[in-house]
Amino acid sequence: MKLTIIGHWGGYPKAGEASTGYLFEHNGFRLLVDCGSGVLSHLQKHIDPTELNALLISHYHPDHIADIGVLQHALLIQYYMGKSKGTLPVYAHEEDAHGFRSLTYRNFMKAQAYNEQSKLTIGPFSVSFVKTKHPVTCYGMRIEADGRSVFYTADSAFKKSFVQFGKDADLLLCECNFYGDMDASGAGHMTSLDAGKLAYETEAKKLILTHLPHFGDLEQLVSEAKTIYKGDIELAKQDMEIII
After folding, report:
1. Whole-prediction pTM value?
2. pLDDT tens for residues 118-137?
3. What residues pair up with 130 in beta bridges, in sequence order?
4. Which CATH superfamily is domain 2-243 in?
């Protein structure tokens, strides 16, 4: 399983980069998880939009879905250029009815609902879900293929239920929007210390800090997380590729 970081900023993208978007690839299948601002532009450095096999959305905040509309336009334009590959399935929760309906677009994108009890098979990937603690309904997810696993927290404050859900993941892709001395819980986010604690308690084999803040020294996030979790920690970076 290969993971490419298409975008990793929280809230809005840094100039020339992108907010949340992650490309998972396995056995020729391409799954995009979240599609925030700037994601479509940077995705095209790796694959053509028509090469996507599925899209998976954690929640409906703009930094996770801002490029849905332009992706729809890309599929439409590529269709008229003779490059269409049929309808792209988009998996999302329907607790925001308007947001869910907006994902379906003509014959190019079709929304399909999941919930916390769902266990989806998306190509070679098996995906399960956990509800997060965030101002809007949001789901973290465990993505597995051929015995390897990634726990993507999406946006959330720390939740004890994450520990069992993410147990022994090969990679913890953990949001880290605040520094260790800050109170992130009210905003529905995690600090570097929360991320380190989650990696330690899940016994994750590797921790990548993502959904990063726009202020401070980002390397401080790593050093703070390392006070709790002694394993491998990296900051997410645009175009970073990880083989899991």
Report:
1. 0.97
2. 999 999 999 999 999 999 99
3. 140
4. Ribonuclease Z/Hydroxyacylglutathione hydrolase-like (3.60.15.10)
Coil vs helix vs strand at 200: helix
Token readout for 137 is 């309904």
97 exposure class (CB count in 10 Å sphere: 0-12, 13-18, 19+): exposed
Structure tokens at 174: 């953990």
Q: Which two tokens stand for residue 126?
A: 């098996």
Q: Flag whether pLDDT at 98 surpasses 90.
A: yes
Tokens 């921790």 belong to residue:
207
Question: Phi and psi of 51, rounded to 5°?
Answer: -85, -5
User: What is the Cα–Cα distance from 54 to 200, expressed in whole angstroms?
Assistant: 32
For the chain, domain boundaries: 2-243
CB atoms within 10 A of CB 27: 10
212, 183 Cβ separation under 8 angstroms = no
Provide the 8-state DSSP code for 124: T
Bridge partners, residue 30, by sequence: 25
